[in-house]
Amino acid sequence: MNREPKRVVLISSSPKVSEESTSGLLTTRQEKLMKTEGLDVHRLDVRQSLMKRRTEADFEAMLHADALVFTFPLYVFCLPGILMRFLQDYYAHWTQRQDGAGGSRIYAVVNCGFPEANINQEAIRVIESFSRKTQNIFRFGVMIGGGGMLLGAQGTPFVRKIMSELDKAFSLMVEDIIQSRKDAVENISIAVNFPRKLYFFMGNKGWVSMAKTNGLKKKDLFCKPYSNF
Amino acid sequence: MQALIISDKEYQTKIFTRLNQMLSKSLTVKGFNVKEIQIGRNDLAFCKGCFDCWVKKPGECIINDAMAQINYDFINSEVVVYLCQVVFGQFSANLKNSLDRWIPNILPFFETRRDGSTMHPARYSSNPKQIIIGYGDELSDEDTKLFIDVTTKHRQNVEVLIYQGDDAEILQVFDHLNLKKVGALL
Q1: Which of A190, B66, B93, B179 is an S-S bond match for A85, by CB 3.0 to 4.6 Å?
Q2: Distance (Å) from the C-alpha of residue A229 to the closest C-alpha of chain B?
Q3: Do A22 and A75 form a contact (C-beta atoms < 8 A)?
Q4: Do A221 and B143 touch (CB under 8 A)?
């Protein structure tokens, strides 16, 4: 007898409006893998959901999912405000229903522009807290350092390596969902293997280049428009 | 002397009102001119991660809304107090959005702190003393601990307090804080 495939909702949570985002790239990777493995995958975008007033339908899809995967960038050391808005609204929706919906498995994939992956730890704990309050089951998080390079340096050997590590982490996620595993899984920490000094040098140079394309000089980056002292 | 109190319009609970009144009074008694900004759901657009505040119009967000005044007031205050309902162990959405859009006040460049972690340096040589007060009626131990970690682990110069209704305790701690500008160490 064929069992119904497990339903997964992938929640891509980049605040970016139309530009390509690292979270979008990672969500696409998860989506492909999960579909290949026979999961029933529904994908949503937090900004689109909020702006196009689709939250009711998206929240219902989330309530009926076996698993939810939140993929987002770290903003000022934690979840972006737009994702907090989505979670608060989901919580209000969940509370109104009062039917005890819950029991979905929850995963978080957080990427940070700083090279250290562990800086994402508190953001993972916020998703864990959200899971507890909505009676879902937090399983594990994937913490990514140097996330900005995933888009900017696609195809380079160090990004190929990190992508391969990410694929392993996403495969573990798929296995965890399909087998409904109950054993504890540690958060996974993945960082670009790239010399820190060079990472800083390239990053800092990148900001100056971007400013120049906007007609600014390096010194303009330091301007102090609000200084009254 | 200017003091700024920033709070979330969505969480104007009884406990918030008491806390806000207490601190506002305490700051006034200390000689501060107190400005209060309450951020509602529709007051600020979401940060869109464009970084134009760093590379197109350095120091200013390109979105034209109330955030420009908030960032101006931030930089020109001696002390800024954030009153935050603790939600899932972090800032509520409206306050977090204002923090996301606070980044014009820092520079894009990467630097290493003394503890080895990465940071963006301050744009201004003089910054207000920041006091973050998390409040809530029935905060779990996990959420309280998480809120303290979220706010202190990656910041060097903030005071973080938790308020769950004990007026005497919060006032005693608040009254002993040094409410002066902190320089460029964020």
Answers
A1: B93
A2: 8
A3: no
A4: no
**By residue range, what is the domain housing residue B94?**
2-175
Interval B81-104 mean pLDDT: 97
Interface test with B, best of A51, A72, A119, A122 (most B CBs within 10 A): A122
Residue of B48, B58, B126 lying closest to A16 (CB–CB): B48
Domain containing A173 equals: 7-194
* CB of A79 closer than 8 Å to CB of A128: no
CATH number of the domain encompassing residue A120: 3.40.50.360
Q: For the residues A104-131, what does the mean pLDDT come to?
A: 97
CB contact under 8 A, A122 and B146: yes
Hey, are the CB atoms on A82 and B46 less than 8 Å from each other?
A: yes
pLDDT at A141: 98
- pLDDT at residue A102, as a whole number: 83
Q: Which residues of B touch A15 (CB under 8 A)?
A: 46-49, 100
CB-count burial class (<10 Å; 0-12, 13-18, 19+) for B155: middle
Name the domain count of chain A.
1
CA A29/CA A138 separation, integer angstroms: 21
Nearest to A40 by CA among A174, A161, A153, A130: A174
Does the pLDDT at position A2 exceed 80? no
Q: What angle do CA A30, A31, A34 make, to 5 degrees?
A: 80
A75 contacts in B (CB within 8 Å)?
47, 49, 96, 100
Per the confidence metrics, is the pTM higher than 0.90? yes
Contacts of residue B53 in chain A, CB cutoff 8 Å?
Answer: none
User: What ipTM goes with this model?
Assistant: 0.96
Q: Tokens 């505040």, residue? A: B53
Q: How far is A147 from chain B (nearest CA, A)?
A: 14
Two structure tokens written together for B4: 């700024």
Q: What is the CATH number of the domain that holds B128?
A: 3.40.50.360
Using an 8 Å Cβ cutoff, are B91 and B84 in contact?
yes
Alpha carbons within 13 A on the beta-carbon side of A172: 19
Residue with tokens 């696409």: A28
Specify the length of chain B in residues: 186
| C-alpha distance from B63 to closest chain A C-alpha (Å) | 13
CA atoms within 13 A on the CB side of A147: 28
| Tokens, residue B64 | 């034209």
Put simply, the answer to whether B94 touches A81 (Cβ < 8 Å) is: yes
β-sheet bridge partners, residue A70: A11, A108
